[in-house]
Write a structure and sequence with these properties.
Layout lengths: L5 H14 L1 H7 L3 E2 L15 E11 L7 E13 L3 H17 L8 E14 L5 E13 L2
Parallel strand pairs: 1-2
Antiparallel strand pairs: 2-3, 3-5, 4-5
């Protein structure tokens, strides 16, 4: 097992989401590794996505080295109901579970949706949908 597959996997996930025309129409390219620094010209009510936390565990066999990546992707919707955030979350789920992810290192064996959770912020101004995925990667 190696953690070296994590960054190539994250880049492949980002590239796959960023290339999807439906997500591009919904997000306008607002997919981030961390919450973005909002500038004066940015729409403060625009929906955006962050690639979130990840846990990596060994998934090696006698003949191959691999890892299972449990990762989160969050949809953030400022000052809106959950509808738009759930639409974006549904597209992300469909794109990732149907994608042939191709990281620069390793081979993705399986992508599976694990869970989703909706939350309101403490001040009730933000909506968040957190998606969890299980990705099995073999070190090729």
């Amino acid at each position: 097992m190696t953690y070296a597959l994590s960054w190539p996997l994250q880049r492949a996930i980002y590239d796959t989401l960023a290339a999807d025309p439906t997500l591009t129409a919904l997000l306008g390219g607002r997919i981030y590794d961390a919450p973005p620094p909002f500038e004066a010209d940015a729409a403060p009510d625009a929906i955006w996505v962050t690639l979130g936390d990840e846990r990596v565990d060994d998934w090696s066999t006698k003949d191959s080295s691999g890892a299972v990546h449990m990762l989160a992707i969050a949809v953030h919707a400022p000052q809106r109901g959950f509808g738009e955030a759930k639409d974006v979350a549904g597209v992300i789920s469909d794109v990732l579970t149907g994608a042939a992810l191709a990281p620069e290192r390793g081979r993705v064996v399986h992508v599976g949706f694990v869970s989703g959770r909706t939350r309101r912020s403490d001040n009730d101004l933000m909506r968040r949908v957190e998606l969890r995925f299980r990705v099995l990667v073999e070190d090729a």
